[in-house]
């Protein structure tokens, strides 16, 4: 499956979709997640996807996000091949923030996308 065959949405579209039944799955690593992530996102680092894939619901739309959209595109492909309804979020958390999506941090520092 190539990138052209994968479903993708803009960050603005993802913001709207994430307010419905979709799951926003952030595939960045824990340090990136702690520095700042989209409100309501679920953390599932790309490095742990194989071991933790069973945590994802197979009957939901998964909006896959990373920092810029490259890692999430690879994970979207992997999830699609495993039978999940996965959609890549173009532009990642940078695009999310630019489109007006809220970013929060787990620590005391200001959130970073």
Report on this model:
The protein is an alpha/beta fold and 113 residues long. The protein has one domain (3-104): Oxidized Rhodanese, domain 1 (3-Layer(aba) Sandwich). It has helices at 11-17, 30-35, 49-52, 70-81, 92-98; strands spanning 8-9, 23-26, 37-38, 42-43, 61-65, 85-89, 103-104. The strands form two sheets. A five-stranded parallel β-sheet has the order 1-6-5-2-4. Helix 4 links the parallel strand 5 and strand 6 (85-89). Helix 1 packs across helix 5 (92-98). It is globular and about 40 Å long. The model has no long low-confidence stretch (mean pLDDT 92).
Quick description:
This protein is of the alpha/beta class and 113 residues long. The protein is 32% helix and 19% strand. The chain has one domain: Rhodanese-like domain (Oxidized Rhodanese, domain 1, 3-Layer(aba) Sandwich).
Mean pLDDT: 92
What share of residues is helical? 25-40%
The CATH C-level class name: Alpha Beta
At CATH's second level, what is the architecture? 3-Layer(aba) Sandwich
Proportion of residues in extended strands? 15-25%
Q: How would a crystallographer describe the biggest sheet?
A: 5 strands, parallel
Query: Order of strands in the sheet with the most strands?
Result: 1-6-5-2-4
Low-confidence runs: none
Shape: globular
Question: Could you say how many structural domains there are in total?
Answer: 1
Distance linking N and C termini? 29 Å
Structural class: alpha/beta
Cα-atom radius of gyration: 13 Å
Number of strands: 7
The CATH H-level homologous superfamily: Rhodanese-like domain
